[in-house]
């Protein structure tokens, strides 16, 4: 923790800030904007295509109505002054006022529909994009998740998609409206009077300069704030997840100090951005005021010379009021667009990621299996030139129970990963009932394999939902039968709402043992031909373990099973014990055969008894 010192210096944070995960999230968030990219815009635009026939005509009509009515109002004013007021024509004035009211009503209705339909399209586009991203992420292989911490994946599905939301719900349409409005105003002003029109437009480059240069600084300022906030969030996330370790090692003070430093940096960054922001309004107003000064000074001269009427002068003044607004908004929109570019690039980067475990185009459905497994000379590496398995060959008959034993890091879980095709071997192949598992669909393979992991994942929902995860069409009776078979029923009915008790996120209200019992019930319900128990009994107390052993007999009966257990007592009855070391099979045989051999397995058993005796003694 002491290396987390200089928070003020961003680079030091990049180099030393906390865990790998934190560092990754920071880097991921740091690219806040990207140059405009047509290719990316086209890709985003494709998401609007499905709605073009349904909604685009309404949007185009309402856009035209809104802009035309906006442009028409000052024309009415000009006409009213020059003709109704100057000529003291009360009837004409009334007609003009009534027409203006009608135009306002049309504008109001059109605007209402425009907003409703654009936000509807926007929401649908975002919905589809989020759907595609999530479904793609779900299809990606373990290798993808090995490289990316959950936090960074989460940021893309939430923050990056959200930052596109404004672009789709308002941005694109506002740009259109602003461009048409600007063009319309320029044409009308020039038609009124070319000289006065051009004189006023002298201020446009000035306004544009102020708007873009200052906006750039402001944008950077707020980006900095977001970056600092993202770091705080990252740190908070890590701190809350690791709160037990922090408290156990009494590191709260250190942690607080680090948090305070980050918090201060964030406040200073906010102050800077906010100060810049406050200068924007007055500067724009000054530039606008220069435009008005030119208008009234030069306009008055033209009125005096009889070149324009008073009505035209007032009309000019009204149009100028509408002139700065779209220029200003276009500048704002541009910043939004650059941020959206960065977000869409990150989203498409994930979408372009191909699963490393690919299904063949003509992959067959694996028929209901017997459970005969053959591993043929398997070589596998997670990272290049660091083999985790170095030529594993193994034959397993249907219904046999196989125990995988060996020191930590010897390759036990890796064998399971390959069996379920979470990864593909670099060399060799995995055969189930004579089918190479790369030739069959992933779904038909995995649906016939059940897994119980030590760190059982409990989803939010009820206990019943969690067991039913094994087979979604199981009846309530089947869920309860499965729970009874693995001795989970007793603890479940003692929960406040029995099977309908809501488990909190990741089942934090349940003990480790209870979570494992649930996952046993889940696996039993799925009724797979091949069952994998990865250190499944490590965190169950001895009494529960005895019950579980009994239930396991039912669970394993007639199935091919792989058991990884560090507690060697639990695998004593396995048909075949496979002893691994550094990615190689060193010994195979049943308990008695391996004990007689007095090799590695014998050594492991001796070591475990010695450890237990010393612990008891
Ligand atoms: N996702 C991964 N990325 C890179 N290397 C990995 C990954 N998973 C495992 N390894 C490495 O592969 C080797 C075998 O790991 P494996 O998880 O199969 O061991 P294990 O026998 O199951 O260990 P344990 O009993 O501790 O669970 C180890 O050296 C490990 O560091």
TrEMBL record:
InterPro entries: AAA+_ATPase, ABC1_TM_dom, ABC1_TM_sf, ABC_transporter-like_ATP-bd, P-loop_NTPase, Type_1_exporter. GO terms for molecular function: ATP binding. Residues 1-22 are annotated as: Disordered. It comes from Paenibacillus residui. Residues 373-607 form the ABC transporter domain. CDD domains: ABC_6TM_YknV_like, ABCC_Glucan_exporter_like. It is a multi-pass membrane protein. Keywords: ATP-binding, Membrane, Nucleotide-binding, Transmembrane, Transmembrane helix. It is found in: Cell membrane. This is ABC transporter ATP-binding protein. Its main location: membrane. The chain crosses the membrane at residues 56-80, 92-110, 171-190, 196-214, 280-298, 304-324. Residues 58-337 form the ABC transmembrane type-1 domain. PANTHER family: ATP-BINDING CASSETTE SUB-FAMILY B MEMBER 10, MITOCHONDRIAL (PTHR43394:SF1), ATP-DEPENDENT PERMEASE MDL1, MITOCHONDRIAL (PTHR43394). The keyword Membrane applies. Residues 1-13 have a biased composition (Basic and acidic residues).
């Amino acid at each position: 923790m002491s290396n987390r010192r200089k928070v003020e210096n961003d680079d030091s944070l990049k180099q030393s800030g906390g865990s790998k995960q934190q560092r990754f999230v920071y880097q991921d968030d740091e690219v806040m904007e990207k140059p405009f990219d047509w290719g990316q815009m086209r890709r985003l635009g494709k998401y609007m295509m499905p709605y073009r026939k349904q909604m685009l005509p309404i949007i185009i009509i309402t856009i035209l109505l809104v802009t035309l009515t906006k442009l028409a109002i000052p024309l009415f004013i000009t006409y009213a002054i020059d003709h109704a007021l100057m000529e003291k024509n009360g009837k004409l004035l009334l007609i003009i006022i009534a027409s203006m009211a009608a135009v306002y009503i049309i504008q109001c209705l059109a605007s209402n529909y425009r907003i409703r339909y654009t936000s509807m399209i926007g929401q649908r586009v975002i919905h589809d994009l989020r759907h595609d991203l999530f479904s793609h992420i779900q299809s990606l292989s373990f290798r993808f998740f090995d490289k990316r911490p959950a936090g960074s994946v989460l940021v893309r599905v939430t923050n990056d998609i959200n930052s596109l939301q404004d672009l789709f719900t308002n941005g694109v349409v506002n740009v259109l409206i602003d461009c048409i409005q600007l063009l319309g105003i320029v044409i009308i002003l020039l038609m009124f009077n070319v000289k006065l029109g051009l004189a006023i437009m002298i201020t446009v480059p000035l306004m544009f300069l102020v708007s873009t240069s200052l906006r750039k600084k402001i944008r950077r300022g707020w980006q900095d704030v977001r970056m600092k906030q993202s770091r705080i969030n990252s740190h908070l996330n890590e701190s809350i997840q690791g709160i037990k370790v922090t408290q156990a090692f009494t590191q709260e003070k250190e942690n607080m100090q680090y948090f305070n430093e980050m918090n201060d940096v964030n406040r200073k960054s906010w102050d800077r951005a906010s100060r810049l922001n406050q200068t924007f309004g007055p500067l724009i107003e000054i530039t606008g005021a220069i435009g008005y000064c030119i208008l009234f000074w030069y306009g008055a001269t033209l009125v005096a010379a009889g070149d324009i009427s008073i009505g035209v002068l007032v009309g000019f003044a009204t149009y100028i009021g509408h002139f700065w607004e779209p220029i200003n908004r276009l500048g704002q929109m541009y910043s939004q667009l650059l941020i959206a570019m960065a977000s869409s690039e990150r989203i498409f980067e994930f979408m372009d990621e191909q699963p490393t475990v690919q299904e063949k185009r003509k992959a067959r459905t694996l028929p209901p299996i017997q459970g005969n497994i053959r591993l043929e000379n398997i070589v596998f590496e997670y990272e290049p030139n660091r083999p985790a398995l170095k030529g594993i060959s193994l034959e397993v008959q249907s219904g046999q129970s196989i125990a995988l034993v060996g020191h930590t890091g010897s390759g036990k879980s890796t064998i399971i990963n390959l069996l379920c095709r979470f990864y593909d071997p670099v060399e060799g192949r995995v055969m189930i009932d004579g089918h190479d598992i790369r030739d069959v669909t992933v779904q038909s393979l995995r649906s016939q394999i059940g897994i119980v992991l030590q760190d059982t994942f409990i989803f939010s929902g009820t206990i019943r939902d969690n067991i039913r995860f094994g087979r979604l069409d199981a009846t309530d009776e089947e869920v309860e039968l499965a729970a009874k078979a693995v001795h989970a029923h007793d603890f479940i009915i003692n929960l406040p709402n029995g099977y309908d008790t809501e488990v909190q996120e990741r089942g934090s209200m349940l003990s480790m043992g209870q979570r494992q019992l649930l996952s046993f019930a889940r696996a039993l319900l799925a009724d797979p031909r091949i069952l994998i128990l990865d250190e499944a009994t490590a965190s169950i107390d001895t009494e529960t373990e005895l019950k579980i052993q009994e239930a396991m007999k039912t669970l394993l009966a007639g199935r091919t099973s792989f058991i990884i257990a560090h507690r060697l007592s639990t695998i004593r009855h396995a048909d075949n014990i496979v002893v691994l070391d550094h990615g190689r099979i060193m010994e195979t045989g049943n308990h008695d055969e391996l004990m007689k051999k007095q090799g590695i397995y014998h050594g492991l058993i001796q070591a475990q008894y010695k450890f237990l005796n010393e612990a008891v003694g």
